[in-house]
Amino acid sequence: MTKTATRVTAGASDESARAWRACAAATGPADRAAAEAGVRRAYRQAGLAEPEQVVWAGSPREAVTLIRATTGTGPSVRETVRSAPWAGQRQRLHQELGPAGWAAHWAATGGRLWDSTQALVDRIRAGVLEELAGGETGREAAEIRLILLDAVLGQHDAPWLAAFPTDDGPLDGLAAVCRSAGWWWPFERVAVVCERPVALYRDEAGRLDRGDGPALAYPDGFALYAWRGMPVPAGFLAELPALTPERIRSEENAELRRVMLEYYGYDRYLADSGARPVHRDETGVLWRIDLPDDEPVVMVEVLNSTPEPDGTRRTYWLRVPPSTRTAREGVAWTFGLEADVYAPVRET
Questions:
Q1: DSSP state, 151?
Q2: How far apart are CA 258 and CA 264, in angstroms?
Q3: Which helix or strand (DSSP H or E) is residue 231 part of?
Q4: I need a labelling partner for 276 at 20 to 30 A (CA). Which of 188, 266, 286, 341 fits?
Q5: In the chain, what are the domain boundaries?
Q6: DSSP 24-62
Q7: Strand 216-217's sheet: what is its strand order?
Q8: Interval 114-135: pLDDT, tens
Q9: What pTM, to 2 d.p., does this model score?
Q10: Strand order in the sheet with 53-57
Q11: Interatomic CA distance for residues 325 and 321, integer angstroms
């Protein structure tokens, strides 16, 4: 392959990945007409009769509830409609490109979307299971889990669809639903299709993240709350603006306490909680405060050696491992060094 052809292929991969990433992250009302046409086309392409009815649900939670309560849908045809066409296309492309070529192709297309999209899928499944099964692990939870695993993921199938041609081929019906709607369940006589979320908030790492409302919300009210990827209760976020050191210390859940500390600010917490320095040397000041049933907060306070434009020097707070015993050891750790080899350059 020439360098020019390689650049064209890379550019096409970039453009394709961006387009499919937009599908995976799309919010707002589904294009119901396009999605239903895609569903019917997917059935036909799989050699099946079209579903007699397409039923809409406001979220995966509502869809699972509907499926459990409905009779007459017939058996699931997911294997025929989704799994078999995908397997066929993957085998064809794998044979055409070879193992190394396929690996490179996947890395340039679907692999770029996989981790963040799959993490979102896992969170939705966990959220639906929690709401409908309430933490139980018996027969009801198993039934819900199986229904969730039987979904065709619609917009969240974007990663693997990105790796294949989808126009006028065996995957174009599935791709049409991906571009138009959320998760869906194909049964012999009925297809159940979900709306897309109305809101989606993620941080730069792709994790669900919002401090003042649901990080993911569907039109029927199903929602997930998270702070930098950490699932939190809905009412928890409302507490954050009024946090005090006493409230942080009283939180029994160690994971929620860490969220509180991140929101409040470790340096502010140390100052407001009356923490005392445990060590001081030429590199900075080591602070430590113990927390119940959790590791202590240990930080080094350092002064920037470079003055700001107004002549002042900014103070930085560096969180270090709980085992840190000296300020020098803590600062050295942030550089990946041992204390005895850390030698900061001094100004003269």
A1: -
A2: 10
A3: strand 230-231
A4: 341
A5: 3-196, 245-341
A6: HH--S---HHHHHHHHHHHHHHTT-PPPSEEEEESSHHH
A7: 199-200, 216-217, 223-224
A8: 999 999 999 999 999 999 998 6
A9: 0.79
A10: 53-57, 190-194, 184-186
A11: 9
